Amino acid sequence: QVQLLESGGGLVETGGSLRLSCLASGNFGNYDAMGWYRQPPGKQREMVAAITGGGATNYRDSVKGRFTISRDNTKNTVYLQMNRLTPEDTAVYYCTVLRTGPFIGKFYESDYWGQGTQVTVSS
Questions:
Q1: CA 78, CA 36: separation in Å to the nearest integer?
Q2: Distance of alpha carbon 49 from alpha carbon 35, whole angstroms
């Protein structure tokens, strides 16, 4: 129903930057928001950033001030600009569609995910 395709991952040194992109297509239904999650090696998947259809954003504390999520609704694309990367940011990054919750920062997850794109930050 929803197809997601991430791109832009790679190998970067500590302090470097990467820009991830996700192209979404299909029937979104009630999923009005989009987000980025990541899964570090040996850890569970965690939310990184989310953005509503109107452009309101939410970030996990560890990436605030370093990462910026944005979207181009005309292209059905969401981006994640990642600056001042650290080895703790190393993970497979996944794109997803979300439903906005009843208060700021609350999102309901979907079962739709992209294939993931690997981000590796070296020391």
A1: 9
A2: 6
CA distance linking residue 81 with residue 4, whole number of Å: 18
pLDDT in tens, 28-52: 999 999 999 999 999 999 999 999 9
- Tell me the residue type at 55: G
Per-residue pLDDT of 55-71, as tens digits, reads 999 999 999 999 999 99
DSSP-derived 3-state class of residue 61: helix
* DSSP classification of residue 13: E
Answer positive or negative: Cα dihedral of 28, 33, 34, 37: negative
Q: List strand residue ranges (DSSP E) for the chain, in order.
A: 2-7, 10-13, 18-26, 33-39, 46-51, 57-59, 67-72, 77-82, 91-100, 107-113, 117-122
